[in-house]
Amino acid sequence: MSTFFGSQFGWTAETVESVSAIQQDAPDFMVNAQVNHGNQDYREGDEFRIRVVSERDAYLYVIYQQSDGSAYQVFPNAGQQNNRVKAKEVVTIPSADDQFRWRIAAPFGTETVKVIASETPIENLSSEQMKSKRFNVVSKDELERVTNKLVNKNAVESQESVPPNAEQPAQVSKTWAETEVKVTTYARNQELAASGAKRFAVYFGVSEYQFSKQAELFTEHNSNLSSPHRDAMILNEMMNHVGDIHESRVFVNEQATRANLESMVTQWLPQKSRPGDTVFIYFSGHGGQIPDDGGDEADKQDELLLPSDFIGLPECLGLLKQAEEGTITPENKALIPALRRIIQGVDSAEVAHHKLARQTGVTDDLFAHWLQSLAGREIVVILDVCHSGGYVTNEKSISDPDAISRNVPNRNHAPMPSDFLDQEVTRLKDIGQSNTCVLTASSTSELSLVRPDGNLSVMTHELIMALQLARGPMEIEQTYGVVAQRCAAFFASEEFKAMQKGNEELIQPHHPLLYKPTQQKVWMKP
Questions:
Q1: How far is the C-alpha of 255 from the C-alpha of 260, rounded, in Å?
Q2: What is the mean pLDDT of residues 97-102?
Q3: Residue 264 DSSP symbol
Q4: SS3 state at 215
């Protein structure tokens, strides 16, 4: 494998399917992998090592797939047969006291380190044969069996009309986690990819929700918004002007789907950027909370981003009503069997809503798992969403205050810290990925508001103005300070007081927050 033995011993292993097919869409815990070259580039003859940490006690398996498709289990192996590890225990492959050296050899190209952590042993990878050598061939059939066992591919394929934006069905095991690292290997005299840090950005703004009319059949409120699509487009223009962005992508309204958000974070950004680059991920739209199902949240709530194709209980009931009346479109009709399956047998409307929201929204746990694809980059996540929780379909609106969720908490206290991703970023830091900072428009208990003219959200407007008016470079901390000051000034203005008149309990100031767990400098405006 681009390893010690691939070409030197004169044989190649059987070509296999991609190890990237082993994906856990709803992990209860995280596992992290790092390689010994920060830029993830290796020349022929370079020494190669892998560092792995699991968030929980687990059985670890590491598969290395070469550029030619051949795959090998490299842990456990002949020198490291015990793959049962304790939570947060650092495992290096080869181990620090091992005299064996893993050196890069042909074939060369893009190669994948896939790490799997399972709370129970994986039968197909645990046999004596699979740890009898340093590099143990994983055949195509074996890899397919492991993939089917973990991802439950057959069960997924047998489900009728699974929504394209849904997570794996509930019967898929969540007692395992995975991550992967892409490395690039080069021949000794081959030219390496151009170096020099670059900056990339993706922007999502959802003003129009695909199933808002269906939700309105039951809530009597329209969940569409006025500003998020403009938030995304105008912030993109400003960052392209002053932020030295090398390349960006913008998704608004019907384009801002769950699948596109996942694709941008886990595929486009990792493919375009390299370790050492900076990536920006922006989302403006609805946000909410559902009960935590992994035991990692101090407030016992998982936060949600709501993409344009989100389906909560109101949307689901509206679709079912249209199906019964015969007024549903063929495209939406195809969703009905899967929606019925999701809510079948639930004992309350609340539980049904939570199940739907978890499968069609983006939880903070899932988003953090996606961020693992960007290891080695400086990551800036900017969120202009509500953190108030509640019934997540009608939260971010000031043009129609009555449409705001009825579950608005008491405002007569200091703002609670924003919980979206702060706990998850801490967890990532604990297992070795610490280069993410998060800027949010509001705290956990607050709604994020839109300016009186309806053109831009308050925080995004002040962020754009801060970037436009700044003289010279601005680090993220300085940018946050200016944005917080500008928001406070707006909320003290007569303009805001006029907007509040008659709706003071619903329309309250909100407080931007910055979560930055590292001391590394991050530049909003270089």
A1: 7
A2: 90
A3: I
A4: helix
Q: How many residues make up the chain in this entry?
A: 526
What radius of gyration, in Å, describes the C-alpha atoms of the chain?
24
What does the alpha-carbon distance between residue 186 and residue 52 come to, in Å, rounded to a whole number? 24
The tokens of 108 are what?
């060369």
Arithmetic mean of pLDDT over the chain:
85
Upstream peptide bond of 107 is cis (omega within 30 degrees of 0) = yes
| Residue 134: C-alpha distances to residues 5, 47, 83, 163, 374 (Å) | 10, 15, 14, 42, 29
Please, are residues 489 and 497 in contact by the beta-carbon 8 Å criterion? no
The sign of the torsion formed by the CA atoms of 27, 391, 291, 202 equals: positive
Contact between residue 181 and residue 113 where contact means Cβ atoms under 8 Å apart: yes
Coil/strand/helix, residue 19: helix
Q: What is the pLDDT of residue 471?
A: 92
Task: Judge whether 275 and 375 are in contact, CB under 8 Å.
Answer: yes
Q: Round to whole Å and give the CA distance between 444 and 436.
A: 19
Cα dihedral sign, 184-187-191-196 = positive
Neighbours of 101 (CB within 10 A): 10
Q: What is the pLDDT of residues 380-418, one digit of tens each?
A: 999 999 853 333 334 454 444 343 333 334 444 445 566
pLDDT in tens, 159-202: 434 444 544 433 444 689 999 999 999 999 998 777 778 999 99
Other CB atoms within a 10 A radius of the CB of residue 333 amount to 14
Q: Which tokens sit at 42?
A: 């290796």
Percentage of the residues of the chain whose pLDDT score is greater than 90: 66
Do the strands 31-35 and 301-305 form a parallel or antiparallel pair, or are they unpaired? unpaired
Q: Which residue(s) pair with 212 in the sheet?
A: none
Position 511, amino acid: H
In terms of phi and psi (left: phi > 0; alpha: psi -120 to 50; beta: otherwise), the region of 163 is beta
E strand residue ranges, 94-241: 109-118, 136-137, 176-186, 199-205
| pLDDT of 269 higher than 90 | yes
Is it true that the peptide bond before 409 is cis, omega within 30 degrees of 0?
no
